[in-house]
Amino acid sequence: MSHHLVEVRNLGHVYPDSTVALRDVSFRIHHGESVAIIGANGAGKSTLLMHLNGYLSATTGEVRIGDFPLTRTTLPEIRRTVGMVFQDPDDQLFMPTVHDDVAFGPLNLGFPPAEVEQRVRDALERVGAGHLQRKAPYHLSGGEKKRVAIATVLSMAPDILVLDEPTSGLDPCARRQLMGLLGEFRHTKIVTSHDLDMVLDLCERTIVLHQGEVKADGPTREIFRDESLLAACRLEKPLSMQGCPVCGRR
What we know:
Low-confidence stretches: none
Radius of gyration: 18 Å
Largest sheet: 6 strands, mixed
Number of strands: 10
Structural class: alpha/beta
Order of helices and strands: EEEHEEHEHHHEHEHEEHH
Strand order of the largest sheet: 6-7-8-3-9-10
Distance between the termini: 45 Å
Number of helices: 9
Mean pLDDT: 91
Helix content: 25-40%
């Protein structure tokens, strides 16, 4: 059995106001893959991510993690396996101190205090934020908050890391530091982002969503070379693959 396998089968989601967000979405992601899910605003990216550890329930189809379908019964184990980092770290940081935020997950999983403390130290050191543990989250910069939000997930030792727009709102230095951090992780990674240069650097495979449907799934560079696909899905090439507007060179 591989807890790292993510399989989405014919997934559909309709919101209570009758908005159809996902239509018959299917794919498999294997251990160690770094996969980007890209698309224009409203394509269904965030909705899809929220199905991967049960924040939303499927209207049709199913999600499987390893050998298990995601159900009410399997949800606690799947949430130990799939760690999700939200686009806005303020949705994830709510305790008085950074230490308390990072300890929250392991404590709720029932680990003994000594192990919780070790997990907090290890997770914060791994993201380069050990010096922040006594600070209040609202005193942190945007980049520091992103690092701590990732640490809150790493402290639960997930096999699969899911990140929604991880570089959103970061300055160039913080973006570069975060990309370096993500590049070091050996987790299975699933990332949504409008930052297509980050996708090009970090993800060898890309899935394109358009109006809730999978329009392409393949090697990232091949996806970004398909100009007709990108145009149809309201996307553009990463800046690093575009020609200079003056001389035309790349």
